[in-house]
Design brief:
single chain; 385 residues; mainly alpha; Glycosyltransferase
Length: 385
Amino acid sequence: MPTKNAVVRKIKPVQHSSVSFNDKFWSKRIETNRTKTIPAVYDNCKNSGRINAWRIDWKPGKKNTPHHFWDSDVAKWMEAAAYSLATHPDKVLERQLKSLTKLISSAQMQDGYLNSYYQSVDIANRWTNLRDMHELYCAGHLIEAAVAFKETTGDNQFLDTLIRYVKHIDSQFGNEPGKKPGYPGHQEIELALIKLYRLRKDKKHLDLATYFIDERGKDPKYFDVEAKLRGATKPLAPETFKQLQAHLPVREMRTAEGHAVRACYLYSAMVDVATETGDKTLLTVSEQIWKNITERRMYITGGVGSDPMGERFSYDYDLPNETAYAETCANISLVFFAHRLLQVNPKSEYADVMERALYNSVISGVSLDGTKFFYENPLAARNSS
């Protein structure tokens, strides 16, 4: 149930299974996604070793050394597969997805921990580098995959696995004695925890998401604290904290700063937490940052993050065409931000930006045949011949 002070969402998303497309534009793209993109991504995950990494049997000398963000790639495929199955049953896809949920669940450690990189390569150093190593980011995508799998199949098995992982994470981070006052270097788990809270109505999940939002940017800076424990002798440069949206507590932020994907994930999560807790200050700050992005730091295509050095937001009106980075993931994250603000306050500007990005700087990230992918989205190019 909502908390006592929760903001009433005037618009709520419906289940994927309740929506069908029969137009001449999106229906074709969705069919291509189902028949070409999802299989292509699965093959890439399999051939690169991302799926086999969950067997937790890698040893030095073997090929395909697990990478610290591989889990997120697998999890995003799982989420996409689950939502595709919600509208288009496919026995092959269903078999692949269920097999993967069982493989990942079988890898879970006794204390609930679940990360293929650390379990295979560096278990002694888990939770020691939140700034760089994406543990909480990967956890977030796994949670979202588990929520999607539950919503589509009704099966609790994978969701239960991830709830155990969340319980472990909750035991590690917070302001209570014995816990680390940390937060993710790459935001994402906050969004996932809200999805999990809305599904299961367990306030502990909302509280953990709120903690990650509230703790971010406070002094002493946690990324300095953990770096010192790893042996660092110098504090991080102020610009590093801005890149990670940890330069200020979130309620003191007014402009979009740093890595654009991280930033818009954070701003989306701020709206989610504000909605569920009734935090009007947090919602107001989110709206101010939205204005800064859409009036001063967004391309005509809905692309954001103009600076290729750091994949980041630049200063106001710095929107060059030829060197535009406008990472596809960042543009998707802007859609997330707009979508959440639209639910709270159904103003046309939020829907307009969603539409602008979807038809331009999001759709451009996948080729027409659905098997090739584009990371950045410049607005102009010169013939180099």
